[in-house]
Amino acid sequence: MKHMLTFCTVAEYGGFVGAESVLGMSQPAISTHIRDFEIRLGFQLCHRGRSGFSLTEKGQLVYRKCREMLNNISDFEADLGELRDKLTGTLRLGLIDSTITNHDFPISDAIHRFYGRKNDVSLKLVVLPPEELERELLNGNLHIALGLFHNRHKGLSYRHLCMEAHGFYCGRRHPLFEQAEAEITLDTLRQYPVSSRTYLQHAELQGLMKARDVAMVSNMEAQAILITSGSFLGFLPTHYARQWVERGELRAFDHLGLTWQSEFSMAMRASPAPQDIVRLFAEDAEATIKTATSQKARG
Q1: Mind spelling out the 3-state secondary structure of the chain?
Q2: CATH topology assigned to domain 1-83
């Protein structure tokens, strides 16, 4: 079991260096575990050396099987905890990036609410693009994913949480930053390169109809980097862009009606029925949304 955990951690953190602090082991000790595991299996799991770390073809298969087995053991521990009326196991949670600035869904409050009750639950939290979150849910590597899911998968269930507003921006060094609002039209914007998130390309670009030199990014930080460079126009969630707008580093083109809303959802596997730790966190997430909405309504 220790060899399996060590191997999966090394694979997930891209090598011995990345896994060292996570495992609390030295690189020589990690190397010994991997070598002993390979001897026991009878074949090589990974390439390591000056050329870098990578899994062999057999190593990739072993990793998937080991990760599945470790997840099943963790879920079994949670099932046993339920029989003892005890919350235990590991809650595997995934988010899209930059959720921390979304005050309509304060994720930190949901986590605080969950750990406000007595439990022995560990938390594994990862940040991934929506399509990877859905893939990890289907593979059993995640229990819950929170984000924008436009291509709904039939093997997953989705619960509406809130709406997220997106605005269209340019950076301070862009030629349009100082231009008068009355002089900027949709045709004006179409003359400049645009950056778009791959998972929102259709939603983001349909209002422009046609844009030149579209750059593709996988997350919001990359999108913000391109827009603040002054070389690209693009959409960002208004809650995420606010920090640069307030510093005078971004300008929004609100007068053109390009602002749009996306649905922020919670996704889980459609079956089997969720364990208590998963069900309770889902309830805490929804309760957090209701509290945030109520506080916003009161001003």
Answers
A1: CHHHHHHHHHHHCCCHHHHHHHHCCCHHHHHHHHHHHHHHHCCCCEECCCCCCEECHHHHHHHHHHHHHHHHHHHHHHHHHHHCCCCEEEEEEEECCCHHHCCCCCHHHHHHHHCCCCCEEEEEEEECCHHHHHHHHHCCCCCEEEEECCCCCCCEEEEEEEEEEEEEEEECCCCCCCCCHHHCCHHHHCCCEEEEEHHHHHHHHCCCCCCEEEEEECCHHHHHHHHHCCCCEEEEEHHHHHHHHHCCCEEECHHHCCCEEEEEEEEEECCCCCCHHHHHHHHHHHHHHHHHHHHHHHC
A2: Arc Repressor Mutant, subunit A (1.10.10)
